Every structure is written in C-alpha cells, then in structure tokens.
Amino acid sequence: MIAPVLDEIHSTYKGRLTVARLNIDQNPDTPAKHGVRGIPTLMLFKGGNVEATKVGALSKSQLTAFLEGNGIDLPKPV
Length: 78
Hints:
Blueprint: H1 3-12, H2 29-33, E1 41-46, E2 49-55, H3 60-69
Antiparallel strand pairs: 1-2
Protein name: Thioredoxin domain-containing protein
Organism: Pseudomonas amygdali pv. ulmi
Family: Belongs to the thioredoxin family.
C-alpha cells in the first residue's frame, strides 16, 4: 500500500514538498482528464502541469528516486 509511504514523505518534507491525494470515487472526472488508467497513479506537477507519471505502488526509496529523477531536489530530512 502506498498511503504509508506518502504519509512518511509528507511528514519528512512538510512545508517543502506538497503531497496530495485524490479519491477517484468522489472525483470521477479527474482520472479521465489526466489519462489515469491504473491505481495508484502518482503524478508530479510543476507549475500546474503534469511533468511525470508513475503507475503502481512504490517503496520510499523508489518514490524518492522518482522525485529526484524528475528534477526534484529533495532537502535533507529535518
């Protein structure tokens, strides 16, 4: 499950990185708008635009690598 990983990333980088979740049952138009075909889908937004997408659950190290591989300079955890 990815929720605990997202919670940890959110806590670690709070105030420096925004983590948002969307319930697709409550927002059924949003997945189609962004071409989501699988759950979970992680989308990296920069300036309001989707810059990268990853489908499937990730470990913390995989998520960190995904973010860093897409130009997100993660600060050292506090």
